[in-house]
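The following record pairs a protein chain with its ligand, zinc ion.
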Amino acid sequence: MSHFIDVILPLPLERFFAYSITPAEADYIQPGMRVAVPFGKSKIYTGIVDRVHQEEPVAYEVRDIEFIVDDTPIVTQDQLKLWRWIASYYVCSVGQVMRAALPKSLMLESETIVLKNEQSNHDEDELDDKEFLILEALENRNALKVQEVMDIVDRKSVLPLLRDMLDKNYILLKEEVYNTYKPKLEKYIYLHEHYRDEERLKNLLDDMTRAHQQRNAVMTLFMLKTGNKDVTKKALMERAQVTSSVIKALVDKEIFIEVEKAVDRVLDERMDGEDLYELNQDQAVAMTQIKASFEEDKVTLLHGVTSSGKTEIYVRLIKEILEKGKQALYLLPEIALTTQLIGRLKFFFKHQVLVFHSKYSLNERLEVWQHIIDAKEPYVIIGARSAVLLPFQNLRLIIVDEEHETSFKQQDPAPRYHARDTAIVLAKVKSARVLLGSATPSIESYYNATTGKYSLVELKRRFKNIKMPEINMIDLKVKHHKKRMKGHFSDTLIEHMHEAFADNKQVILFQNRRGFAPILECETCGNAPQCPNCDVSLTYHQYKNQLRCHYCGYHTYIPKECPTCSSTALDTKGFGTEQVEQEFMELFPDHKIARMDLDTTRGKNSYEKLIAKVDTGAVDCLVGTQMITKGLDFRNVDLVGVMNSDSMLNFPDFRSHERCFQLLTQVAGRAGRTENRGKVLIQTYNPDHMILQQVSTYDYSTFFREQLEDRYQFKYPPYHRLIRITFKHRDYNFTQESAQWFVNALNQIPHGVQVLGPEFPAVARIRNKYLTHVVVKIGKQHEVNKIKGYIVKVRRSFEAIKQYRSVRCNVDVDAY
Ligand code: ADP
Ligand code: ZN
Ligand code: ZN
């Protein structure tokens, strides 16, 4: 009887490939283990075993595996289930899901190794210079890495050369597989057993009176040891103020023993957490309602105004889970923005907090993975989108905070999954509870709460009953007309800022654009520098003295004169955070400002440092992009100024009004969180815009009703599902033509749904590729899975057509 395994490969393949294994291997291998397998001509991949079986594949010749990597599964059965759901719902391959889920350090790397072909008997005269150099090097050494070959022949592309030499039988190529994970090692110092006897130690110290430093080191180690903790070499050197040569001398004399041990990168030290706060009346009621809803096994939406204490409720729910020895997942839109929250959770849960961080190194991520799957402690795992793909054990609770945030949806590459929606499926697989939380729920979730699919729990008042901030509009038309503007600041805003500063309060300024100005324009001919790779104008960055493309990263220096007409009269249009910062410094020379946007938060700890500056009062004002709107809890901010709300209102997208409502409500929520009522000033040319009216009166229900009506009328979610198919190619016409072929082919099928496009989006070229969209709108009366099946079928035909090979075709289910 032959044995086989189905292996998931990290490739966009529609099916799994089977490999043959021995009966002994069949006894040993479990689904979820890694195996190294050959694929194609000479590639070796790490794959995950999906299934062990005895069904011989008929369509292709089965190959053997190279080797088994693990002795226990590193992926759980439940994960495999979830991967399959994601692949089928979001129309991609399980391999693509696997690639998104596994930390890269779990995927073994393989590297091509060049060996001499001993069978070859060639004349030296046949060889050209490069071949000679390579073979000569192989005489001296048995194997060369491709990188080394590059160095020898001094050029970048050596693969054609190697392939040629392979054809001539001069060399052999081999894939070597290696592991990239490196444990973090730390050196520890122990006293030699001999001196653990008090008498001997005393004698030793007496003998050491002249070796002053060594004596000092021994004494310090003895002292540090009293807590019965292991002492690192680093700590000992620091405390005893000695160099490593002193320690080495003691090791040589066999007084000290040095041991190198792998240490944990991601867990805090074991410690008792602080007691939780008492819930107030409103919170306690909400808590009871949430639990009742959990009893009914329902997804629960917590709609609580900003600063109502939603986080305190999450903390309490998490505590109960940890006390039962189970795991909890806390999903956040962007992990970079969560410094404060991590601090809050670690305050209560210490070593039970695991963070899955996009800025973590691969090694750190792997350790988080291991801790979760080993489950030696109950953990709460905090993470952004991809944390939903971790190998949970005993997961009982998932909190999706700021559930309305669009960054929960992955755009590129596949799987284009929504972490909130995936979390709800994960919870089903795990029999866990789900709590969605937001001050501004998404239309979709709130709709589900009104239909009874979810239950709704509300917190309508701020903690301590502080009133919601007062929100006022400032009409920029009037202000400009009356000449009451200084740069981009109206007199009203300036006045209120002065008042806040006089009160020793802080101010937050929101402008949803980074850089100094989005456009640099020639006043004479109107020319504005464009990105050579994308259809957008370049943003003027004053600090870097550059023009930058926010789509592809292209940058160049600022021209002294117009490249078209040579005029030197260049002016900027629009404004970004840098300009607000500069104007602030001119208007308030005695006050300090910090700026928080993508440009100032690139480093690993830059975000933490900025927050600390605000927290400690080192700055009086914080200006930033949407980054500052989320989740920040500053005690001393009284005033929030929105520099210009109009660009957010005029975006050509069915969610733009929703997004604007959410952003403004969230940023307003940063004001007046701890004692006094806060104030918000919104500068706008459209003070009567219904969205601004709804924001300023905190009228979520009117906002919801009106948006829902629009969604119904124009066939958008939650009434219709959208699948967006994007086509990308270097040639404008070809992009459109190939998309049109797809639409025509799809419409050959009597699917009955609306297919729109192909249509070029507002920015139709990015990184030198044109893109065009086809949108499929699927109503409640249609069978979604059938329609997806049609799309997959047409995509398969599309990809089989030779001339369309160069066209990228991406399917995005529930596109944003
Ligand atoms: P939200 O998450 O709804 O915006 P938070 O949980 O951040 O609100 O609460 C706002 C502030 O009020 C925080 O500083 C928080 O520590 C405090 N707070 C909320 N509830 C309590 C409570 N029950 N006891 C003490 N402080 C609380
Ligand atoms: Zn010009
Ligand atoms: Zn660009």
